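Hi C.,

You asked whether I'd gotten around to modeling the 220-residue construct. I have! Everything is below, sequence then structure, no commentary in between.
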Amino acid sequence: MSATAPAAPSPPARAVAAAPVEPPRAHSAAGHVRATVVLLVLLLFVVGVAYPLVVTGIAQVLDPSAANGSLVHNPNGTVEGSTLIAQNLSAPWLFWERPSGTDYAMVNGTATAPGPTDPALGALLNETIAYMKEYGNYTVNATLPFWLVSPSASSVDPDLTPEAVLVQVPRVAAANNLSLATVTDLVNDHITNPALPFLGVAYVNVLDLDLALVSLTGRT
């Protein structure tokens, strides 16, 4: 057999020259401004357009009434207001709302409502005593509900405690030529109790109550 010839040695590999490294470009003011504007527009779209549309769409599906402002309509379909906002109801044949430090205006600010030891509460108390004397349901045994003499923190709280509504029953009954029992039953039917005793207090939405009263009497 013939001997195998040795393989020829491979030529040495040539060294590959490294590409020159370019120095990093300096940040330009125009680039920063452009990035800031793009980020600002994106955030405005997300939080100002996309998010409100998504939340509104979900609310319209889950609870359309609340999503549209909890509006209340009278029997002929006219919008009378919202169950979330008190109104200045002063007709003698209607139940009156809690006092307001802003005349029931949503855009006006107000100081904190006076507390039980605040001297400013005295003026409100005197007004309520005068009201009760005028309408003939003030006695030595009468209880003056705090909610009937003091504004709420928002001054547009639409709810009253049952006691603050029931104390108005004699006036409302007399003004509508209704019996005390009829008006009292109407109030009792509109008392909303908390789901659990420690989660809140019972309350009456006065606008809802007055709309039911108007429906009963036919007055406007």
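If it helps when you're writing up: The chain has a mean pLDDT of 77.

Thanks,
B.
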